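Hi P.,

Sorry for the delay on this. The queue was packed all week, but I finally got your sequence through. Input first:
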Amino acid sequence: MTKRGYKNPPKEHQFKKGKSGNPKGRPRKKKAPKPEPLDDIIQYVNEEWVDTLEINDNGSIIKITKGKGVVKRVFAQAIAGKVSQQKLLLSLLALARGGETDQLTLEQLQSYDEDLLHELHEQLNSMNDDTPGEFNDQGDDVDD
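Then the structure:
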């Protein structure tokens, strides 16, 4: 007769030979997710975008955000004839309008671009933005 009781379970309840008592095993430790490197860059850009800076605007010093400064520079360079800035500006405007220019044909888009650039040129001329040192209209900046 076999012993039964404390530390002596019946044979039918004992572990079978060749089979583990813990078939799934111990669960592995969950690793903390690594932060994406782009997340840090995006956060830094967002912080810098809202910082303020002082610029000379027609003889008076004004405070604007760096984001607004970038937009002013892109507009000035697009008017000065920098094709890369014109393309950037037009693609940003298309994004802002929710892609409504997607349905336009190529000819319509080209005339739309010309009209838009002409309008921007007139606006900048009306503002008489000839402050020295702020924007270089000569196109000397290395951009392309």
